[in-house]
Specification:
With about 325 residues, the chain is of the alpha+beta class. It is built from 9 helices and 18 strands. It folds into 2 domains: about 230 residues, Rossmann fold, CATH 3.40.50.300; about 90 residues, Beta Barrel (OB fold (Dihydrolipoamide Acetyltransferase, E2P)), CATH 2.40.50.100. The protein is about 25% helix and about 30% strand. The protein has a 6-stranded mixed beta sheet, sandwiched between helices. Strand 15 and strand 16 form a beta hairpin. It starts with 5 loop residues before the first strand and ends with a strand.
Length: about 325
């Protein structure tokens, strides 16, 4: 069995004793070359976990290992952080008065100037920023600065790239391109990526594995498609797919019987057609979403949401036949 590049065992780090904060008793392994996304709401412990992996925080209990060797904490070495890992934070940590080329090249020694130049140019090409090499950081957009920060972090043969909210300052238009670039660069270089994000789309788009955090606890981990389709908790379903959550009582009003507290399903699991188990709903509202519409449906005082791909087929105040094709008892 392949040895993990990073192994986290029973990791606990509490920032305040009066209230729950930080992380508690978290364990998982990361394989070399994988992209792992740590997802959760603000305050769930994502950044604490990332900083603990890097060795920036002194943990209360547990260990982080890099290829079986314990990662030292900030109190055990002169310069905090592991030498084979690099972290890109939300502020990018760039020299704003220097040129793009110089920011990236500054991470390499001058022992071989030709090699230094070649590595710098190759990394800029990986991230499509070679045309910016002579620009100062102050002249760049947020997305361009993000690319420079990633290139700077990766140019010195980094084994693990740690990204803390990498797309928080990037326009929606550029997000998908930057996500795709990170995925491609990881595949081309073999770097392992550990990313923290509050946006589930980042993890679903990019990751080989998701870690779902809530109140410092690791609720669920697994491949994105598995975690999305089979969430273990209501929180996971709401975080990843804006799920509809009904109490057992409300679910029964729609003909759905569960033996647990909630019936949970995604809007795309609602079938807008007449079948043996469909019910009559009133369309209370229609939300335009581009290539599809989201319908707000109501029956017996209970509202659910459904996806309508044939835009305009059902309008507000219409009555439609709908069935909840699949649901989870959580």
């Amino acid at each position: 069995m392949e040895e993990p590049i990073i192994s986290v065992k029973n990791l606990t780090k509490q920032h305040q004793t009066a209230q729950a904060s930080g992380i508690s008793d978290i364990s998982f392994d990361i394989l070399k070359g994988n992209i792992v996304a740590i997802l959760g709401e603000s305050g769930s412990g994502k950044s604490t976990l990332l900083k603990s992996i890097y060795g920036l925080l002194k943990v209360d209990e547990g260990t982080v290992s890099f290829f079986g060797k314990r990662v030292l904490g900030p109190d055990e070495q002169l310069i905090p952080g592991h030498k084979e890992m690099k972290m890109v934070t939300q502020d990018f940590s760039l020299n704003i008065y220097a040129k793009v080329y110089d920011n990236i090249a500054s991470m390499l020694s001058n022992t071989n100037v030709q090699s230094k130049h070649q590595k710098t140019m190759e990394m800029m090409q990986h991230l499509h920023i070679e045309h910016l090499k002579d620009k100062k950081i102050t002249q760049l957009s947020g997305g361009e600065q993000q690319r420079v920060a990633i290139a700077k972090a990766m140019v010195s043969d980094t084994s693990v790239l740690l990204l803390d909210e990498p797309f928080s300052q990037v326009d929606a238009l550029l997000k998908n391109q930057l996500r795709a670039d990170i995925k491609r660069v990881a595949a081309e270089t073999g770097v392992t990526v550990v990313m923290v994000s509050h946006d589930p789309a980042d993890g679903l788009f990019l990751a080989d594995e998701l870690l779902i955090l809530k109140d410092g606890q690791l609720l669920q981990r697994g491949r994105p498609v598995t975690v999305y389709n089979n969430p273990d908790h209501v929180y996971t379903a709401q975080l990843l797919g804006n799920a509809v959550v009904l109490s057992a009582e409300d679910a029964l009003k729609l003909g759905v019987e569960v033996k647990t507290a909630h019936a949970v399903f995604y809007p795309e699991w609602v079938e807008l057609k007449s079948t043996w188990n469909s019910r009559r709903f009133e369309v209370k509202d229609v939300y335009y979403k581009g290539f599809y519409e989201e319908l707000l449906l109501e029956r017996n005082g209970v509202t659910i949401r459904a996806i309508q791909l044939n835009r305009g087929e059902h309008k507000k105040n219409d009555h439609v036949q709908a069935a909840i094709g699949r649901f989870l008892s959580l």
